[in-house]
User: Which sequence fits this backbone?
């Protein structure tokens, strides 16, 4: 069980209220997509779930447990960012294994898990390469590999495909959908790409200035946007 629940969450930076009052429950295994204009607080909300930022008020619950005071490593989550953040001096194998090393896993187990993940993401022939010897799509796959090797209960993606070209984005979108099907983990995915949101999401959460403007299944938001703002983000104004 790894549902994610935000209760009365607020976040201020230097006196500026960035997350105003968010109550949201993302079900176990749900694929939830956050959309909204630049600066509305999408990344901050993910970072609050991950524990990379601390809440100013409210609480964060994962799998029914209050994790508000817990550090990122103890939350059972993995995060994939827009910039791949791979270690340039480490091979693909070492980059993927990095998450496990920190968890004190045994060498033989590490090797087996890395091979399994590399197989899933078609990285097996590339394990001994360095990041600079990979394409953008391959690098992002390594970043995803490093996240899934730990078998997290919850995945957080912050615009993971926005640095990739259009055709690669379509391919990676299909891979992420497949990943969700095979892992059955809870996913929270930030994007500004409407097609990604509509095709990947079980539920879309539209954020505006630190608040949830509307949340619902893609077809529901498309057919019944609460206002012009939501309609603009879901594409039904055109
Ligand atoms: P989004 O991901 O939706 O574009 P962010 O969550 O990155 O938005 O940012 C929301 C707001 O919070 C922005 O106004 C941003 O400038 C501000 N912000 C984000 N992180 C910090 C920080 N560490 N310190 C101060 N302000 C921040
Ligand atoms: Mg952002």
Assistant:
């Amino acid at each position: 069980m790894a549902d994610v629940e935000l209760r009365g969450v607020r976040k201020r930076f230097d006196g500026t209220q960035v997350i105003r009052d968010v109550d949201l429950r993302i079900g176990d295994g749900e694929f939830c997509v956050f959309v909204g204009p630049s600066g509305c607080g999408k990344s901050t909300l993910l970072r609050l779930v991950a524990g990379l930022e601390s809440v100013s008020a409210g609480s964060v619950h994962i799998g029914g447990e209050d994790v508000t005071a817990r550090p990122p490593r103890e939350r059972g989550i993995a995060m994939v960012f827009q910039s791949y953040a791979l270690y340039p001096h480490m091979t693909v194998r070492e980059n993927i294994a990095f998450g496990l090393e920190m968890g004190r896993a045994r060498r033989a187990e590490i090797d087996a898990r890395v091979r399994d993940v590399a197989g899933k993401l078609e990285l097996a022939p590339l394990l001994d390469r360095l990041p600079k010897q990979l394409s953008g799509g391959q690098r992002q796959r390594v970043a995803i590999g490093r996240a899934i090797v730990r078998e997290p209960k919850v995945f957080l993606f912050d615009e993971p495909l926005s640095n990739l070209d259009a055709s690669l984005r379509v391919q990676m979108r299909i891979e992420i959908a497949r990943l969700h099907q095979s892992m059955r983990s809870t996913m929270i995915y930030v994007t500004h790409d409407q097609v990604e949101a509509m095709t990947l999401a079980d539920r879309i959460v539209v954020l505006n200035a630190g608040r949830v403007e509307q949340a619902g299944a893609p077809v529901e938001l498309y057919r019944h946007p609460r206002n012009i703002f939501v309609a603009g983000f879901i594409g039904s104004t055109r």
